[in-house]
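Worked example

This section walks through a single chain of length 266. The input is the sequence exactly as stored; nothing has been trimmed or padded.
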Amino acid sequence: MRGIQSYGPGMVVLLAAGAALFVGPLAVKEFVHAQTSVEIVQASTRLQNTNNILEQINAVQRDIAKLVEPSVVHVSTESTMQRRSLPRTYVSSGSGWIFDDSGHIVTNAHVVDGADRIQVQFHDGSMRDAELVGLDLRTDIAVVKVAAGGLFPAKRGDSDDVQQGDMVYAFGSPFDFRFSMSSGIVSGLGRTAGPAEIDYQNFIQVDAAINPGNSGGPLTDIYGRVIGMNTAIATGRGNTVGQGQFAGIGLAIPMSMIENYVDQLI
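Given that input, the structure is written out below as tokens.
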């Protein structure tokens, strides 16, 4: 009995210490959970605030899409080539944009070069046959024409006002995902990198995603005005530039150059 009494106080201390060790972490866990719940509610309330700058950006970008998409087209081509003395039909595609109410559409020369048949698909899914008006391989600019009527010509901006850091939006049909939109910024101006066959090189460099199929599509500013035309991609393979997959560097022909050559081609 005396031995038990001597151990009694010690056991009480041990039990108390064990309870503290067990209850302490639970209390801390409950406190952290409660604090996180409060932070979640506060964050949700702030995000629902009508002054949420991200929602304003979302709204602007949705409006840019609604403004620009009706002027963007998907360009499909068919061409016949001799292969082992047998004619074979090749199908390719790219993008373009409506230049005016008369039915003129601007695209890249390499998209329609050598085509026997050109078809244009509009944002509503309708298709029209197009005829080649003219192309200039040195600048990679081409003009095709469809029947006038029911068209939404793109709004045009001034590429001379473009500055490094400006937000831009690229439209087109990357990998045949038609009427897609990507965003980025102007990474540089006056770039000379580009396909060797292009003589005139004064590209706008952007980091907006540009992939095969985007060629000929419009590059717009934050007001939905076309400031350039997507034309080439730096693939990252030995610093080559052409029509490979996006590697963070896309090149666009500036509008100042496009308008000059398009008017001549028409």
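What to look for: DSSP finds four helices and 13 strands in the chain.
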